[in-house]
Amino acid sequence: MSVPIDRYRRWEQVRNARLSNLPWLRSDVQSGRPVRYVADEILVSEGGAAIAHRTLNALGHRPSAVTEREPRRGLRLLKADGLDVAAAVRQLRGQLPDAVVGPNHVFLSTPYEHGGPYGPPISATAPPSKLAPSADGPSSVRVVVMDTGVYLDSPLPPGCYSATADNVETVLDGNADGELDSDVGHANFIAGVVVQSTDAAQVRIVKVLDSFGVCTEAELAAKIASLTDVDVLNLSLGGFSVGDQPPAILSAALATFLAGGDRVVVAAAGNDGIHDRPFWPAAFAAGGAPWASKVIAVAAHDGNAVCDWSNRGAWVTLVAPGADVVSTFVRHTPAFESGWAAWSGTSFAAPKVVAAVAERRAAAGSVVAAAEQVKAEASQQQMGGFPALH
């Protein structure tokens, strides 16, 4: 399947215009790839806040011009107009080597900006596979799709997932250009991949991305910190970081989320076609943290080879089907009357792995053991030098 080139170019223009018109977003090009973060803001753990204030004062920002808020417990966000974020982070990391310090990175869903192959979904016919209702009972695997909000006008039945009212999305055309925003239906699609592949999952959708697939690191970390009843977390989003260093606030949130518990994070590897830079949060899978083995970084294959648009590198755990995936989208005339679509990207390879973990949990005895079993099975069938799930 392919997207007409004029439609892709239009989608790309809208996407780029959206990013360039966000007054709070800054973008630096490092090693040929954009690193995005929120202008004028730094994040620091609570114990380093006083030193952070003094550092910003030394950089020329009056105490009265520096504001502080608490995006989540134990974390402080400092803001000053005209702040040189990179300089402030460098100084503070030198002064606070054991503290959490970093810019407020901006992350994007993994067909947005990384859009493979090349842009928007296209209409598709519903496949013969059934959509499994949300599992119930002690053996069900609690899956959270942290993504866009869910759209209700969709062939994804309410019985296949749960979402509170604040996690329902209604925006279809946020910039009023007459076209669907780039990430409309993203969570619907991911949830549809899971429930087409297993009847062992209890899927919940938690909104962190807007209809253009954008969130900040602080927002993502706060949402992860708020999770309690979850076994597997699907993160089909990500980005690059300043200096290729692990995003500090996200790292702290994942450490708390994964430490000591029977939980797994499945993260999309991104669709930039690169192999020499870490893409976060997927790259935490090989980051050396004590909980790194609980992160599965998923690249995409097309059944024959690793997709050329899929990121890859030593931090990738395995590859899974991610090209021309057919799943539940939104009903929108005239292009999507059925509500089903074909879409490609590591965004949709990740939930294939989520489903595989859910399928194996009962026999394996735990979510972590099920994840290790999926990895072991994938290692028996290599593709492009990577373990492959089919």
Automatic annotation (TrEMBL):
Superkingdom, taxonomy of origin: Bacteria
A matching Pfam family: Peptidase_S8
Entry GO MF terms: serine-type endopeptidase activity
Residues annotated as catalytic: 147 (charge relay system), 186 (charge relay system), 347 (charge relay system)
InterPro entries linked: Peptidase_S8/S53_dom, Peptidase_S8/S53_dom_sf, Peptidase_S8_Ser-AS, Peptidase_S8_subtilisin-like
Biological process terms in GO annotation: proteolysis
Region (Disordered): 118-137
Location of the Peptidase S8/S53 domain: 141-376
Keywords annotated in UniProt: Hydrolase, Protease, Serine protease
Xref: PROSITE patterns: SUBTILASE, SUBTILASE_SER
SUPFAM superfamilies, alphabetized: Subtilisin-like
Family: Belongs to the peptidase S8 family.
Protein name: Serine protease
